[in-house]
Automatic annotation (TrEMBL), chain A:
InterPro entries xref list: Tfb2_C (IPR040662), TFIIH_p52/Tfb2 (IPR004598)
Protein task: Component of the general transcription and DNA repair factor IIH (TFIIH) core complex which is involved in general and transcription-coupled nucleotide excision repair (NER) of damaged DNA.
NCBIfam families, alphabetized: tfb2
A GO CC term attached to the entry: transcription factor TFIIH holo complex
Coiled-coil annotated residue ranges, if any: none
Subcellular location field: Nucleus
PANTHER family: GENERAL TRANSCRIPTION FACTOR IIH SUBUNIT 4, TFIIH, POLYPEPTIDE 4
Stated family: Belongs to the TFB2 family.
Name of the protein in question: RNA polymerase II transcription factor B subunit 2
Keywords: DNA damage, DNA repair, Nucleus, Transcription, Transcription regulation
Gene assigned in the entry: LOC108827553
From TrEMBL, chain B:
Role this protein plays: In NER, TFIIH acts by opening DNA around the lesion to allow the excision of the damaged oligonucleotide and its replacement by a new DNA fragment. In transcription, TFIIH has an essential role in transcription initiation. When the pre-initiation complex (PIC) has been established, TFIIH is required for promoter opening and promoter escape.
Name under which the protein is recorded: General transcription and DNA repair factor IIH subunit TFB5
Keywords: DNA damage, DNA repair, Nucleus, Transcription, Transcription regulation
Domain of life, source organism: Eukaryota
Organism: Raphanus sativus
Gene it is expressed from: LOC108861043
One Pfam family recorded for the sequence: Tfb5
Length: 455, 70
């Protein structure tokens, strides 16, 4: 079975994959420099700060001396990352008639960051004065709006065929997002693929990432420069949540982008008598933060009982659909979904490529506040049983292999054992009766080995 | 001279191994597929029976579960 995994890759991996010219252009923007600095691994961050006010290239050898022996791998990762992002430039300088590799900071990046550190950051655009008759939504309202919009979008994403048009996202755009998540089969309509199921169980930020990534990689088809899009999105993440920003500070491309983002719930568009403005929501400002520490704790809604019954306090259709992925919906009340986790419902989920760990994390992340305080939030017998049912499916492990016996001597046998163990191909051995089983991949090497050694 | 046989190596728990051994014994002798019983948790079988064993195990599992009618 092909293992399709949806990895919510970092924004920065995307930045790193841009061409050199585009990257240099990106670094003209102070905010991008800052966002990138934030995203670096700790050691790389330290190097950048250490280099910040050094104008001359520093020999690679000297940098290597800064780290202790057990930090060498981290050092390598940091340097690779910096070169990949073109923050460090490699130059070969001849010192004492010996060639040496030296590193120096990208001059634009360096200048911008210096400026930023000395004089502090100024936002790309000022928030509008709050007194000119704008009624700003409260943070609470804004968050509800954002989540509602996002949920609407997700529901449309998975229910593509049925259902009325809810958001303003064009159907061609929707197709792009669905690519990979749904398999298009004409007969029984679109069906969720394995990665689609995994996508639904991810938390909002990871989902957002996936969608934004698709959005950016599709940019060229819409005649939009991906670099512009990335810089705009990063810029957006430095805006203050809940403040209004005037639309006339944006370029045309940014304005069309903003419309799409509003459909996703990243910004809220409002129109006054004279001008219109946009208000970034929490979803937007979380964009540049690295994934690990940004999982916003949503209010949970699932209560799991030790008898495998699950009560979900939710009115949302989307959440019902998600629960249906791995549980049996028994009945629905206006604000409550009652379901049960059964062996069959779980086998269904496992068939669709969802793992027990994903289900358990989903339950833990979404447990009702009253349950979330308890340790453990999901009864242990339930989590254990889910894992047991999964391992029940994997009771047999089969490997294509070759079986060897009738070795002429103990020495040849031991030699063959060691040889295959080094190749990582030894599956089983019986030294008393001199029999062994190796993976089929190493059969040919094994044959050659025996040919030379059994003489 | 060393002798080599191609096949499938199976690792599983003891009851599963017994299940497979029993399956093998119930077959007519022309269709027996176990080449060697290596130890209580390892078997070595003919290369083509992988799918057959899997489906037999799945069937066995289904017989042991009961779905509540809706």
């Amino acid at each position: 079975m092909p293992q399709v995994k949806i990895i919510a890759k970092n924004f920065m991996d995307m930045v790193a994959s841009l061409t050199a010219i585009k990257l240099d252009k990106l670094y003209n923007n102070v905010f991008i420099c800052e966002a990138i600095l934030r995203s670096l691994p700790p050691l790389a961050k330290k190097y950048v700060l250490q280099f910040l006010f050094t104008d001359e290239p520093v020999p690679a050898k000297d940098i290597k001396e800064w780290v202790l022996a057990d930090g060498v791998s981290k050092h390598g990762v940091a340097i690779d990352r910096l070169i990949q992002l073109r923050i460090f430039t490699e130059t070969v300088v001849t010192v004492d008639r010996k060639k040496e590799t030296c590193y120096s900071l990208n001059p634009t990046f360096q200048k911008n960051l210096q400026k930023h550190i000395i004089s502090g950051g100024v936002l790309p655009r000022e928030p509008m004065n709050s007194n000119n008759a704008i009624k700003l939504p409260s943070l609470q309202e804004l968050e509800t709006y954002a989540l509602q919009q996002w949920e609407c979008f997700l529901l449309q994403l998975i229910n593509s065929g049925q259902g009325e048009k809810l958001t303003g996202i064009s159907s061609s755009m929707m197709k792009v997002f669905q690519r990979g998540l749904l398999s298009q089969r004409d007969r029984d309509g679109p069906r969720l693929t394995e990665s689609g199921f995994q996508f639904l169980l991810m938390d909002t930020n990871a989902q957002l990432w996936y969608i934004i990534r698709e959005y950016i990689s599709n940019a060229e088809e819409r005649d939009v420069d991906p670099a512009d899009l990335i810089s705009f999105l990063l810029e957006l993440s430095f805006h203050v949540t809940g403040e209004a920003y005037n639309l006339n500070t944006l370029t045309d491309v940014q304005r069309t982008t903003l419309k799409d983002l509003a459909d996703l719930g990243l910004v809220k568009l409002q129109q006054g008598r004279k001008d219109s403005w946009f208000i970034p929501t929490k979803l937007a400002t979380n964009l540049s933060v690295s994934l690990a520490d940004s999982s916003v704790r949503k209010e949970g809604y699932v209560m799991m009982e030790t008898n495998f019954r699950m009560y979900a306090y939710s009115t949302s259709k989307l959440q019902c659909e998600i629960l249906r992925l791995f549980a049996r919906i028994e009945y629905q009340l206006p604000n409550l979904i009652a379901c049960a986790i059964t062996k069959e419902s779980l086998y269904n989920a496992f068939d669709n490529g969802i793992t027990s760990e994903q289900i358990i994390t989903f339950l833990q992340q979404n447990s009702h506040p009253r349950c979330a305080d308890r340790v453990p939030s999901i009864p242990e017998n339930v989590t254990d049983q889910i894992r047991l049912w999964e391992s029940d499916l994997k009771r047999i492990e089969m490997t294509q292999a070759h079986f060897y016996d009738e070795f002429p001597s103990k020495d040849v046998f031991d030699g063959a054992c060691n040889f295959t163990r080094q190749l990582g191909g030894l599956l089983w051995e019986d030294s008393k009766r001199m029999r062994l089983v190796v993976k089929s991949e190493v059969h040919n090497q094994m044959r050659e080995y025996l040919h030379t050694h059994s003489k | 001279m060393v002798n080599a046989i191609k096949g499938v190596f199976i690792t599983c728990d003891i009851p599963m191994a017994q299940f497979i051994v029993n399956m093998n014994n119930s077959m007519p002798s022309s269709q027996k597929f176990i080449i060697h019983v290596l130890d209580s948790t390892h078997l070595f079988v003919q290369p083509h029976v992988e799918q057959m064993i899997r489906s037999a195990v799945a069937e066995f599992r289904d017989q042991n579960s009961y779905e509540k009618p809706t």
